[in-house]
Automatic annotation (TrEMBL):
Coiled coil: none annotated. It comes from Giardia intestinalis. The lineage of its organism: Eukaryota, Metamonada, Diplomonadida, Hexamitidae, Giardiinae. ATP binds at residue 38. Residues 9-275 form the Protein kinase domain. It is an enzyme of class 2 (transferase). Keywords: ATP-binding, Kinase, Nucleotide-binding, Serine/threonine-protein kinase, Transferase. PROSITE patterns: PROTEIN_KINASE_ATP, PROTEIN_KINASE_DOM. This is non-specific serine/threonine protein kinase.
C-alpha cells in the first residue's frame, strides 16, 4: 500500500498561507511530536503558472532541501505527491513562532521598534544561511556551482521561540554554474534587486540586495521600496535617526548599493564581528 500524508499523519489546524501553499500542523500517530506540512495544489485554473511548471519547481525544491544541511534550512521529514488530486505535501520541522512578516506587522501595529539585539540575531542568521547557499562547490563533473535564492521576503522567513530562523522555501532558487549570471527575469517585488528588475544578468548579489531591504524593513517597520524598485531619496537608509547603531546602518547600506560592483556580498558580510557575536548567541540556545 502506497504511503500518503493521510496514512502517516493527522493533519491539524491551518497555521499559515501564502500565494502557492497552505501550511498545517500535523502529528504522526505513533508520537506526540508536532510538525508542519506545506500543501500545494498544482492543478487548477487559478494557478499563476502551469501545473507542469509548478510541479517541476516543487521537485527541484525537494531535491535541494534533501541535499542541503544548515540549521536555518527547515529539515524535510517526508514528501508526498498525489497525482489524482494534484496535491503536493512536504512535512517539515515545526517553526513555532510564525514568520518575519507577521512579527514586523505586530511591532508596527504596537508602534514599537524591534530591538536591535533581535534585528542582529535575525540578520546574522540570514547572512549565515545565504552564505552557505552562495559559497561555490564542485560537482562530480568539476563544474563550479552556487545557489541563488531569488525569493527572499519576510513572509518566507520562519521563526522559532528560541530565536532560530528558517528559510521556508527554495521554490525559485537556482543552482547555477559559474561564471554564468543570467537567469529568468524575476517578477516585480519590493525585494528584487535593480539589476534583476531591469532584466540584466544577476547572481548572488541580488540576494544581498534583498537581505538589505528586509533588514531595513525590520528597523523602519515599512517597506523601503514598492514593486517598481529603488526610488530617488530612499538611499542611503537612515537608521541612526530611529535609535539604531551606526554599525547596523553601515552594514545595511553596504548591501543596498545599486551598483552591484560595490555591493557587499553576503559571504563577506557573514564575517562581520558584530554579526558573528549575534549569531553565536542564538546558536548556543538551539
Amino acid at each position: 500500500m502506497a504511503h500518503t500524508l493521510e496514512s502517516d499523519y493527522t493533519k491539524g489546524a491551518l497555521i499559515g498561507e501564502g500565494r502557492f501553499a497552505k501550511v498545517f500542523l500535523c502529528i504522526p500517530p505513533d508520537s506526540g511530536d508536532l510538525y508542519a506540512v506545506k500543501e500545494v495544489v498544482y492543478g487548477g485554473p487559478d494557478q499563476e503558472c502551469s501545473s507542469e511548471a509548478l510541479l517541476a519547481m516543487l521537485r527541484k525544491e525537494a531535491n535541494l532541501f534533501s541535499r542541503l544541511a544548515h540549521r536555518c534550512l527547515p529539515k524535510t521529514v517526508s514528501v508526498y505527491n498525489n497525482p489524482l488530486t494534484s496535491t503536493w505535501h512536504t512535512v517539515i520541522e515545526l517553526f513555532d513562532n510564525g514568520d518575519l512578516a507577521t512579527m514586523i506587522s505586530e511591532y508596527s501595529q504596537a508602534n514599537v521598534r524591534i530591538p536591535e539585539e533581535r534585528v542582529l540575531e535575525i540578520f546574522s542568521q540570514l547572512t549565515d544561511v545565504l552564505a552557505y547557499l552562495h559559497e561555490t562547490y564542485k560537482t562530480d563533473s568539476a563544474e563550479v556551482h552556487q545557489i541563488v535564492h531569488r525569493n527572499l521576503r519576510p513572509e518566507n522567513i520562519l521563526l522559532k521561540l528560541n530565536g532560530l530562523i528558517g528559510l521556508a522555501t527554495l521554490r525559485l532558487a537556482e543552482e547555477q554554474e559559474l561564471p554564468r549570471r543570467h537567469m529568468d527575469r524575476l517578477a516585480p517585488s519590493p525585494y528584487v534587486a535593480p539589476e534583476a528588475l531591469a532584466g540584466e544578468p544577476y547572481g548572488t548579489m541580488a540576494d544581498a540586495w534583498s537581505l538589505g531591504c528586509i533588514i531595513s524593513e525590520m528597523c523602519t517597520l515599512e517597506r523601503l521600496f514598492d514593486a517598481s524598485g529603488p526610488a530617488p531619496g530612499k538611499l542611503p537608509v537612515n537608521l541612526t535617526g530611529l535609535g539604531y547603531s551606526k554599525t547596523l546602518e553601515v552594514l545595511v547600506n553596504a548591501l543596498l548599493q545599486e551598483n552591484v560592483n560595490v555591493r557587499c556580498s553576503v559571504v563577506d558580510m557573514r564575517h562581520n564581528p558584530v554579526l558573528i557575536q549575534a549569531r553565536s548567541a542564538v546558536f548556543i540556545r538551539d
